[in-house]
Amino acid sequence: MTRHRDSTRAGQRTKKHISATSIQHMARMAILLAGIPIATLSMAKEIPTGQVPATQSDWTTSDRMAWNTWRKSAIAGSLPLAGEAARRFYEAFKVNLKQGKDAEYQTILQRHSMYDAMSFTLHRAEDVDRKLRCIRFFDAAADVTSETTLGSAETLVGQTVAGLSAETVKAIGSINQGLFQKNIGVMKSLLLDWKEPRDPNQPGVVVTPISFDLQMVQFEQSAVEAMLTADPSLKKKNIIDQVSDLKTTAQIAAHYFSGQGGPNARMLEFRTKWLPAVGIPSFSFDSKEHRVALGEAYVLFLHGHGLEQYKALRKDRVVPSTSCKGTLP
Fold it and tell me: Has residue 220 been placed in a domain?
């Protein structure tokens, strides 16, 4: 009789264990499908939802997701009210930027939201000099790190459905982190020191907003080239092939997350129409020229210019005028 009771209790404990494990698994799957990487749950800087951030430089996962949702809403041009979740993420952004704390943002999707907060600040913040209003580079940076583009590498869709290898996911994350470390210095200088567009390669030279954006493309892609040269493992054929064909991943991710608009549509437009028009029928990530051409397409598009102006830029380096048209939310 005692043996029977012990067996029954053991069975009940096993059922409870299986049930709890299944629930944890389903929760992790749901988070991944929402575009939040599993790694977020154990990070010191982005605090799991329900916990209280220890400092002003920290935020919760729900704060960041609230910011992302706010920025897609009809009132994206205004700042969330003090105390709201989205506002807490934005206030943490300001603290971290002032202190140059790039390490606070430990995933591509966290950096995406940081770039988006920078974009909002340049376009909408009341205390920002109007000379900075028409800078578009950080709009593009947010665009290409979303859950339907590079950020998809951290989601279940990118890793499983689209079939990105572990090596490719690691390479994308490593390069993105390296660029972010460099970019946050420029972001801080823009808002706190320069307060006007300057050439990031020659900070003493004042430039127009569109020239700043184009110079940032060169700044970034020179950094990527240095990373690829320093670490040959990043140039393995399977990695280059998968990153070069990231539009396929974007198409799959877009089906799950955002329909066929937004970053996905822009990426396909540039790769299938703009790049071929300037002699690049097939994009390859290991070509600096190709990467610069793609970045310059983003810049001109976000300044409201079209294919003809892009062709003139690529052929004769005719830089069109700065425009505040084409701004993302």
Answer: yes
Residues in CB range of 188: below 8 A, 6 or more apart? 97, 98, 100
Q: For residue 59, what are the CA distances in angstroms to 8, 49, 90, 282?
A: 45, 9, 9, 41
- Tell whether pTM > 0.85: no
Give pLDDT, residue 153.
85
Angstrom distance (rounded) from CA 229 to CA 107: 23
- Give me the count of residues in the chain: 329
In a domain, 304, yes or no: yes
First CA to last CA distance, the chain: 70
Q: How many CB atoms lie within 10 A of CB 278?
A: 16
Q: What is the pLDDT of residues 117-161, one digit of tens each?
A: 999 999 989 889 999 999 999 999 999 998 878 888 888 777 776
For residue 26, pLDDT over 80 is answered with: no
Residue 15 domain-assigned?
Answer: no
Which of these, 295, 294, 301, 302, lies nearest to 329 by C-alpha position?
Answer: 302
Domain of residue 214, residue span: 24-316
What Cα–Cα distance (Å) separates residue 259 from each residue in 26, 125, 148, 267, 279? 24, 30, 10, 14, 30
Closest CA to 269 of 241, 242, 243, 250: 250
Task: Provide the domain count of the chain.
Answer: 1
Does a structural domain hold residue 296? yes
What's the pLDDT tens digit per position in 54-106?
Answer: 888 899 999 999 999 998 886 767 888 888 999 999 999 999 999 999 999 99
φ, ψ at 82 (rounded to 5°): -55, 135
